[in-house]
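To illustrate the input format used throughout this study, we show a single complete record. The first block contains the structure-token representation of the backbone; no residue identities are included at this stage. The design step must infer an amino acid for every position from geometry alone.
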């Protein structure tokens, strides 16, 4: 600025001298010119650029610094307007500033960027002042200080700051500034990936809000150590509370930079080490589990280290099972020689295996072999492998009992074969596809085949076509569950074409843990079935006779029991009950009103409504029926079913007011069929009300009076299957 003022004063002095010359006052200008040359020479040697513009904005002078800096000669400059080199974005400001100088105003220094040779640019700070001649402003003179390096440095700093900012923001580690007072001043966005917080949620918070209670003391001590002296660095691992309430392991590095300008805080670096911690815990747990496994596994395990070129081995470890099997304490064994402790190992052949495994690194399975040394004797089965440490591990089992069991099994198999061949029951086996594998003599005798014939047959080929689906379901059941849950009846064809009735039981036979075949036992029940059929016919005839007796006493309800029996049987079939249950239901329903024998005929056939006394007599017929039937042996609980056929699941039935499951399912089904038939049929005191009303009645009382399953089955029977009462 002083230089500019000096130049301006010189310029005014030149102007005054020129004015005197014009006024006719001749002077000796040689001294003045010399001074001006000295001045320009001085300007050429200063470190800043100096230039002059005339009122039109054209360069009239540039010093050597500008020429050197721009690569443009002074002659070329003097032909340029200042706007020719100023960058477009700075032209307006430069023009405004220079116009103010030409107007005599003082202008503050400003920055401008201009082009130089080679399409480069230079940024300078311009400090300008007016040039006076004869009291008038004829131009301006300016000093330009090169800001390029400073600008580049600032840009580099800015770029570095941006680079570091992005590095911090995109780092997997979180970076924080932490005040000496214990609060977070800044937190990078990575904290969201680590603990789930937005950075602003943590700013202003204290560390105590986030540290696990069990780690509080550790972190408090670390913070105190950090604050003790500037430059201190501390590290710690602790659990920090995640935003979702869980705990994450973090590794923290803290650096005390409180004394550093521009920082004035503690820098904390957070790294999520949860997975590492979990891995460490898993490794520790694995090591613990291995040790537990080593100590508690049922197999014997020993670890050996080779001596020299494996001329011998010494014991490194020995588990409890090995102690028990070898009858030796491990403390008396660790560090001892294998050959000295177990001298029979060479004769056994196991020592050669140890040497091969140690030299080749390839594991070997050594089959059960007898070991004996005068102290102990037994069969050992070994698996030997080499550890990365060079140690040899032998996992072995004392299979002496197993070998004894094999002998016993062989003897047992021979005994079984004897029983198999001599059994009066039919015993057979077939593969999972039904192809016969074996059959005992009883099977061959009953079916009329010889052994070669039957081994060429499939079990399914001996069954009638209608039983094949049942046989396939049974086969699937056995393969899936391992055994046949229920005894099944089949008709099996003899070689002469005649069918015999058999009861069969079967189970799955395994080999090496895999299902291999099915073993079956069949009993010839042909004669028994014939006897049962005869008995069933006899029972049926007896039941029919009883039913006829009831109908004789109550002609108005003739056929009622038969219709109830048929409907109850059909309902039971829809419900999926067994054949035996269905037979029992049909039988009981056929005589369910047998107790009415004890009721006067005039009450049974009364055409008008019964009195209370008369109805009370009617309500005695279930008990009367029970008393009649209780001493008769049926294959089913017929007497109880007859007793319960007027009970209701809500407890409002008679004679005993039973509820729900207290009533037999068979009784519940018959009670429902009884009501449906009664409503839909003619009675002495009223005409038929129709099947629709009957179905509506049971639907309305589903789950209260009547069993829901029986109601649903009955509705399906009529609505979907088109059921009709007998005689309709």
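Output of the design step:
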């Amino acid at each position: 600025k002083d230089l500019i003022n000096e130049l301006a004063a010189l310029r005014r002095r030149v102007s005054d001298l020129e004015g005197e010359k014009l006024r006719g006052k001749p002077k000796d200008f040689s001294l003045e010119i010399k001074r001006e040359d000295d001045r320009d020479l001085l300007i050429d040697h200063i470190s800043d650029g100096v230039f002059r513009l005339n009122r039109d904005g054209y360069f009239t002078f540039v010093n050597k610094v500008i020429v050197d800096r721009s690569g443009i000669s002074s002659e070329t400059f003097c032909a340029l307007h200042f706007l020719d080199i100023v960058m477009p974005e700075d032209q307006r400001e430069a023009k405004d500033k220079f116009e103010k100088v030409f107007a005599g105003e003082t202008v503050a220094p400003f920055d401008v960027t201009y082009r130089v040779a080679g399409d480069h640019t230079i940024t300078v700070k311009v400090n300008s002042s007016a040039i006076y001649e004869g009291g008038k402003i004829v131009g301006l003179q300016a000093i330009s200080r090169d800001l390029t390096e400073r600008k580049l440095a600032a840009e580099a700093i800015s770029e570095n700051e941006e680079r570091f900012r992005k590095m911090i923001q995109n780092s997997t580690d979180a970076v924080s500034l932490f005040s000496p007072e214990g609060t977070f001043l800044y937190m990078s966005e990575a904290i969201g990936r680590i603990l789930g917080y937005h950075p602003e949620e943590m700013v202003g918070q204290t560390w105590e809000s986030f540290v696990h209670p069990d780690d509080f003391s550790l972190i408090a001590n670390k913070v105190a150590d950090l604050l003790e002296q500037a430059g201190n660095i501390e590290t710690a691992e602790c659990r920090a509370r995640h935003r979702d309430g869980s705990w994450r392991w973090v590794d923290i590095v803290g650096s005390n930079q409180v004394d550093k300008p521009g920082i004035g805080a503690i820098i904390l670096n957070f790294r999520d080490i949860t997975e590492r911690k979990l891995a460490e815990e898993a490794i520790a747990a694995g090591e613990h589990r291995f040790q537990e496994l080593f100590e508690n596994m049922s197999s014997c395990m020993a670890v050996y280290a080779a001596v020299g070129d494996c001329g011998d081995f010494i014991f490194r470890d020995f588990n409890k099972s090995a102690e028990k099997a070898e009858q030796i304490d491990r403390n008396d064994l660790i560090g001892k020689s294998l050959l000295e402790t177990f001298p029979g190992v060479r004769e056994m052949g196991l020592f050669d295996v140890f040497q091969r495994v140690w030299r080749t690194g390839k594991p070997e399975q050594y089959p059960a072999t007898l070991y004996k040394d005068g102290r102990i004797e037994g069969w050992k089965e070994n698996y030997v492998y080499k550890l990365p440490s060079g140690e040899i591990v032998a996992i072995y089992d004392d299979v002496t009992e197993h070998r004894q069991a094999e002998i016993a099994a062989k003897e047992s198999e021979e005994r079984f074969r004897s029983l198999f061949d001599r059994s009066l029951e039919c015993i057979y086996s077939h593969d999972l596809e039904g192809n016969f594998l074996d059959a005992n003599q009883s099977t061959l005798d009953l079916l009329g085949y010889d052994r070669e014939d039957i081994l060429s047959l499939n079990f399914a080929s001996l069954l009638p076509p209608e039983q094949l689906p049942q046989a396939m379901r049974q086969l699937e059941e056995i393969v899936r569950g391992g055994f046949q849950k229920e005894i099944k009846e089949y008709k099996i064809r003899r070689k002469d074409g005649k069918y015999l009735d058999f009861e069969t039981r079967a189970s799955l036979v395994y080999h090496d843990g895999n299902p291999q075949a099915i073993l079956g036992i069949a009993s010839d029940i042909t004669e028994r079935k014939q006897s049962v059929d005869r008995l069933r016919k006899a029972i049926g005839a007896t039941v029919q006779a009883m039913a006829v007796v009831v109908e004789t006493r109550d002609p108005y309800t003739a056929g009622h029991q038969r219709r109830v029996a048929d409907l109850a049987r059909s309902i039971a079939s829809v419900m999926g009950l067994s054949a035996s249950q269905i037979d029992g239901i049909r039988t009981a329903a056929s005589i369910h009103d047998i107790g009415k024998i004890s009721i006067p005929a005039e009450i049974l056939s009364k055409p008008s409504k019964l009195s209370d006394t008369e109805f009370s007599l009617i309500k005695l017929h279930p008990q009367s029926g029970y008393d009649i039937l209780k001493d008769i042996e049926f294959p089913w609980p017929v007497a109880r079913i007859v007793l319960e056929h007027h009970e209701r699941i809500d407890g409002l039935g008679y004679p005993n007011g039973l509820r729900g499951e207290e009533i037999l399912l068979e009784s519940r089904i018959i009670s429902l069929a009884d009501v449906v038939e009664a409503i839909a049929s003619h009675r002495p005191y009223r005409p038929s009300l129709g099947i629709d009303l009957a179905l509506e009645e049971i639907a309305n009382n589903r789950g209260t009076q009547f069993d829901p399953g029986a109601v649903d089955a009955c509705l399906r029977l009529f609505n979907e299957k088109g059921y009709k009462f007998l005689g309709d």
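Structural context for interpreting the output: The chain has 29 helices and 20 strands. Residues 238 and 646 are 76 Å apart (CA to CA).
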